[in-house]
Design a protein that fits this description.
Residues 276-474 form the Histidine kinase domain. Keywords: ATP-binding, Kinase, Nucleotide-binding, Phosphoprotein, Transferase, Two-component regulatory system. This is histidine kinase. Its EC number is 2.7.13.3. This protein has twelve helices and 18 strands. By secondary structure, the protein is α+β, with helices and mostly antiparallel strands. The longest helix has 40 residues, at 258-297. The chain folds into four domains: 2-138, Beta-Lactamase (2-Layer Sandwich); 150-256, Beta-Lactamase (2-Layer Sandwich), CATH 3.30.450; 259-323; 331-477, Heat Shock Protein 90 (2-Layer Sandwich). It has helices at 2-10, 12-18, 64-72, 120-138, 174-183, 194-201, 210-217, 258-297, 303-326, 335-350, 369-389, 433-445; strands at residues 21-27, 33-40, 57-59, 82-84, 87-98, 101-111, 160-163, 169-172, 223-228, 233-243, 246-256, 332-334, 355-361, 366-368, 396-406, 409-416, 449-454, 464-471.
């Protein structure tokens, strides 16, 4: 099964070189016929199968060419063309061999409408298709042990070069020639030694080692690599070709990825710039914190000093978010770490005469930066408010941060076991700056809902519960 999965993952090459549809026929467990297990259409020609046939069943003796390939273990090309939906189709069947046993059959169907005198490119493609066909029937393809990501490999149409067992180029498609001309070659490729050409065009630091590239380009090993110089970048895949059990050269697929690599470098540069910006913003905020803290220490104890100390904490909560963003590769914040740092920092400095412990229940997960920054300020204000006003002087207390994600919404609550809300508390009528900041951030900045109430609504006493609910995408969402 693993062999068949690997074959199907890589048989687009055979379909494109053959200009034909491929169908993998798997033998029925009871020996009564074959099931269509996979299907592939060519990107280089017209399909012969207008409908998907995966899952179809063909009884024994209904399709003699499939029976013959499976029974005799040989490529079957006999028989007249078939007519399907008014389309003449030439059918060939290829045994799939594994460890000496035929385990499946590939049916190769060529649409004969529009068949004309083949060009040199088409003849070269068909010759390489015959090489792969023989390798499949002998159990030499797919390449044993190859674990590369074939979904990103170059395709036949991207560029193709055929070498002999000595590494000499016997054929190069127009796209293959164009790819090497991007690297800097000026003449033709055919007849040249591809190993020597590659070594001359690509500096050593930007090409695979000579011990790796030479066996690949001469067909002794399979390999994927990238060639790069100052002019271009090429993605390369070499497939060893065998004939009668002997190495006969290599099929080299090429893709020009110059523009892709340029954009990747630009993206990496922008990501690094953004992280540096966050780092500098964090440093600047910490400088402002230090200046405000220095100013507060020069003031007498009173409202002015308390106001400066509150400003220091508010700026610190924003700095924590920017510090996290400066270490990330995108604009997403792992907010659990931010929340834990904030609750510990605020509780420790909120009141030197009280012992206030905090804990978090639940997980924030990843939050976008536009949500994380105002939410950090909201948590700072709520935890600070609970630590300063929920407990009497020299009392100990406990503050719990509960968080839950429900789909695209975030629900959190800050609970304390203190004295509870003052009599007649009205969120809209309060003059508290901290509460006003929270209300503005939650409702205007985050597009959420804020509410205050008793921790235990049934009894009305035993602490305070502040609930916040926000959409994770911000107000627009």
């Amino acid at each position: 099964m693993e062999w068949l999965h690997q074959l199907v993952a890589d048989w687009q090459i055979l379909a494109d070189l053959s200009f034909a549809d491929l169908v993998l026929w798997l033998p029925d467990a009871e020996g009564k016929g074959f099931w269509a297990g996979a299907q592939m259409r060519p990107t280089t020609g017209v399909t012969a199968h207008l409908d998907d046939i995966v899952g179809d069943f063909v009884p024994r003796n209904r399709r003699p060419t499939i029976d013959a390939a499976f029974r005799e273990g040989r490529v079957v090309r006999e028989g007249d063309p078939e007519w399907r939906d008014d389309i003449p189709v030439r059918l060939e069947t290829i045994p799939v061999r594994r460890d000496g046993a035929v385990i499946a059959v590939i049916a190769r169907s060529t649409n004969l409408l529009g068949v004309r005198t083949p060009s040199r490119l088409e003849l070269s493609y068909l010759a390489m298709a015959d090489d792969l066909t023989e390798m499949i029937s002998e159990g030499d393809f797919p390449l044993p042990g190859e674990q590369s990501d074939l979904s990103h490999s170059p395709r036949v149409g991207d560029g193709l070069i055929r070498t002999d067992a000595d590494g000499k180029v016997t054929y190069a498609s127009p796209n293959g020639v164009s790819a090497f001309r991007r690297l800097g070659i000026t003449g033709d490729l055919e007849g040249t030694d591809l190993v020597e050409v590659t070594q001359a065009l690509v500096p050593a630091p930007h090409r695979p080692t000579d011990q790796a590239i030479q066996p690949a380009l001469t067909g002794r090993t399979g390999s994927q690599a990238e060639l790069e110089n100052g002019a271009a970048s090429l993605s390369l895949r070499a497939i060893p070709l065998r004939s009668s059990g002997k190495a006969s050269g290599a099929l080299v697929l090429l893709r020009d990825v110059t523009e892709l690599r340029r954009r990747e470098r630009e993206l990496m540069s922008k990501e690094a710039t953004i992280r540096e910006i966050h780092h500098r913003v964090k440093n600047n905020l910490q400088t402002v914190q230090a200046l405000l803290r220095l100013q507060a220490r020069r003031m007498e104890t009173g409202a002015g000093r308390e106001a400066l100390e509150e400003a220091v904490r508010r700026i610190g909560s924003i700095a924590v978010v920017h510090e996290t963003l400066s270490q990330a590769f995108d604009e997403m914040v792992q907010f659990d770490e931010v929340a834990d740092r904030l609750r510990t920092m605020v509780a420790e400095v909120a009141s030197p005469t009280r012992s206030v412990s905090t804990e978090r229940v639940g997980s924030f997960g990843e939050l976008p930066a536009e949500v994380a920054t105002p939410l950090a300020m909201v948590l700072t204000e709520l935890i600070q408010n609970a630590a300063e006003h929920a407990f009497g002087e020299e009392e100990s207390g406990h503050v719990v941060l509960e968080v839950r994600r429900r789909g695209d919404r975030l629900e959190l609550a800050v609970l304390d076991d203190g004295v509870g809300l003052p009599s007649g508390f009205d969120l809209r009528a309060t003059t508290s700056l901290g509460v006003s900041i929270v209300a503005t951030l939650v409702e205007s900045e985050l597009g959420g809902v804020l509410s205050f109430g008793p921790r235990h609504p049934a009894t009305g006493g035993g602490g305070t519960r502040v609930r916040v609910e926000v959409p994770l995408g911000g107000r627009d969402r």
